[in-house]
Amino acid sequence: AYTVDVTKPLCQRITIDKKMKNGKSFDYKEKYIVAINSYRGNGGGKHLTEGAGIKHEDLSSRIITSTPVDLRYYMMQWMKKKQTIKPETFTDWKLIPEDWTKPAGEKDYKRLFNL
Question: Phi/psi zone of residue 26: left (φ > 0), alpha (ψ -120 to 50 degrees), beta?
Fold first, then answer.
């Protein structure tokens, strides 16, 4: 599981306490390859710059590979191939302070499901 606590200082906001898919514990000193969309990879949402403390001008040097189409394209192709998908809720993460996130989640839910 992981926790994002926006009240903590930069580079101290994320706590990861779950084992990785390969069974190993997450190691903050280790380097990992992650897949993110181009918006986030280019600094959108400030997750990498303000959240992780990476300088905006250093972001492009961290890109290992990119694709000519957006991540949504691959997701849509996968959904078309599957034809029927069963969405699942993952509850192994949380945001702190929770009183900030609950109203936002309710608002997003209403938008997603046109309520």
Answer: beta
Give me the residues of the chain with pLDDT under 70, please: none
Q: Which residues contact 107 (CB under 8 A, 6 or more apart)?
A: none
Taking the C-alpha atoms of residue 11 and residue 94, their distance in angstroms, rounded to an integer, is 17
| CA pair distance 82, 91, nearest whole angstrom | 24
Segment (H or E) for 96: strand 93-96
Provide the β-strand partners of residue 94.
3
DSSP 42-91: TTGGGIIIIIT---GGGGGGG-----SS-HHHHHHHHHHHHSS-------
Q: What residues contact residue 114 under an 8 Å CB cut-off, 6+ apart?
A: none
